[in-house]
Amino acid sequence: MLFPTVEFAVFFPVVLTVSWALMSRPSLWKPFIVAASYAFYASADWKYCLLLAGVTAGNQAAAKLIHRTVSERRRRWIVAAAVALDLGVLGVFKYYGFFVESLQEALDDLGLGMPLPLLTIALPVGISFFTFQAISYVVDVKRREIEPSSSLDFAVYLSFFPHLVAGPIVRAREFLPQLAEPRDPTRVAVGSGLALIGLGLVKKVVIGDALARSVVDPVFAVPESYSAPDVLLAAYAYTAQIYCDFSGYTDMAIGLALLLGYVFPQNFRSPYRATGFRDFWRRWHMTLSRFLRDFLYIPLGGSRGGRLLTYRNLMITMVLGGLWHGAAWTFVLWGAFHGLGLVAEHALGGRLRVPGWLRWLTIFHLIVFGWILFRSESLDVAGSFLAQLAEPGPATLWSAPVVLAIVVVIGLQLLPPARVEAAQVRIERLRPAVLATGFAVLVAIAGATVSSEGVAPFIYFRF
Amino acid sequence: MSGAPDDSLMSRFDKHGLRRFRARDAIGAVALAALLLVLFEGPSIRRTGERMDPGIERDVVLAIGRPAGWLGDRLPLADAADSATAWLSPDDDLPEDAGFTTTAQAVGSRLPPVTAEAFDPTAIGARAAPKLRLRTLLVTGDSMSTPLDTHLGRLLADEGVRVIREPHLGTGISKSFVIDWGELSTRQLRDDRPDAVVVFIGANEGYPMAGADGREVECCGADWAAIYANRVRKMANTYRRGGEARVYWVTLPTPRDADRQPIARVVNAAIEVAAQPWRAHVRVIDTVPTFTPNGYRDAMTIDGTETIVRNPDGKHLNDAGAELLAGIVLEAIERDFTF
Asked: Per the confidence metrics, is the pTM higher than 0.95?
């Protein structure tokens, strides 16, 4: 069940109403919200619910055991086992085919070809997100940053439907304290919630999907059929599309949670304003950046071991971060490219003096280049795409609406943040009835732009 | 990355005093938005429900969509909203008179003559027709046609052939309440005038269809097969442009799901029958001997290596399978065309 569908539009008002009716009685509210979240998840495939329940039970048992164990060494072993379990689940469902096929190809190249067990395994929606949240929970318990919650609270945390399938990656220490007390029914950010859902809908359905349909999908499918102007347009269009798609989803997730009384961390902050790779990762998918920083980069040693070790740690973090996005060499290369960017930035250490606008322009185009690797189905396609950038020819896909959409999506991020925030706050403070009417208009407009084949799935659903 | 501040910004809504409303404002606002949408978009909600696959979600959406649609039909609001937003629709205008429902499907009373077009010359040892020049290739169908379309596009990218990829995901020939492929094929012919058309469709078939007498026929008996074959025949006739173009209709590899196997079987049988009057122009590319000769399988040997060729859903071909199929389709195209 996608957020921008009629099914969800029927599901959510019912859940919202019952949720607030039961809010003052946590013993009823918590089982209800878990049931609603599992029903939401089962609409993709009920069998995935068993996996979610298994991950919940396994990590909760580990957290309780860690909490009861005094020996630091034993606590480390338990957390290692729990993390191995989570990564094992992720490995089997997400990476098995990729590793087996890559290994088989490598063995074939060496003349050692041997049959390896091939399996077709369906990727459960949201697995990358809920396994990471489970890891954050057991590690935070091990670090004594939080105490283990009740099993029911942990089940709510892991399955809460607004963030279940594509994030944001909410840390246990951010969410569990909100479950300790019922949400205050007199302090709800209704304006922000409605505005974010409406904004997310427009970003995803009206802009993102339209760019995908008209430019991105045709060009990335067969780049050889297009010449430089169209290929260049597709690169910019995808830059705008992936932002609209993912940040649109996040806006909706945060807005839905707000209407239910819960706050999620911010996930995007004008990422195309970035003037460096480090700056970019503080603005793009911020909850993943934090996760990688706190659970991978710092445990690897961070920047504590000297220059070379820092570079190694940055590369490992970014390559694995790339691989998290999908089981393909294009994602590995994309992660490595960003890792190299971070290393270069670290090595230069601000010694390179360039005007701000030039710095922005350079970083922006390096990020656009990264998206070409990210979007391409294979390294061959990425190679063809880049080769076509040097192929002169007609501009067949350029149109005023497409160019305008790209300029608006990227241009709005370059406006002074204080001014944008002030405008946003003014809207979010409007009366709910006014916002509801505006919201209905936005839904009608977004609905009109959906083709008869329905809303395209979110890009991050397959991660 | 080290030393980065905590960017969660959990207090951002408190900072501006935005948590200033009550829970009942939230419920009221959502209810008001829902009411407005029912009044202005009622028929759209009903239409969405009617297009969904059978199941509890469809039942729930229709439980709201039907009364909402009824209300919308009686008030001028939905029409006004429709006219105001119609220009935003990405859907093509389809020629309504070319649809399956408006095309006579009844078989005439006189005995239809067998013509020379019913024979593929090479199959009877006659001289093959001269090869045509391939300028435009349309690859179309439902989700089955992806990523076959991209592989064909890449194979022909350097050959000066314009490859038009037009997958319509979630559609089906028996699912004309979503898209009527009779209308769609006519529109495709009108817009693109392809020299050759590759059709790979059938992931979503099995829906009841109206027979010539108007009554609904359930899948998957001979009556259903006959209606399906008539629809395929109508499309194939459109695509072949009176013999000027060639059609390559790809049959379904056996799916894993036992419930879907009878549907695939009847669809494939209907395709074979539908192509009979124009074997000279309509080639049936049978995928069963290649991919599922002895029933469903995930993997097969390609160039000496055991390779997975199906998607985890057990229905579609994966990238490797589609690449293999693209080669087979291209071989068939090369028998008819130069490029």
From this structure: no
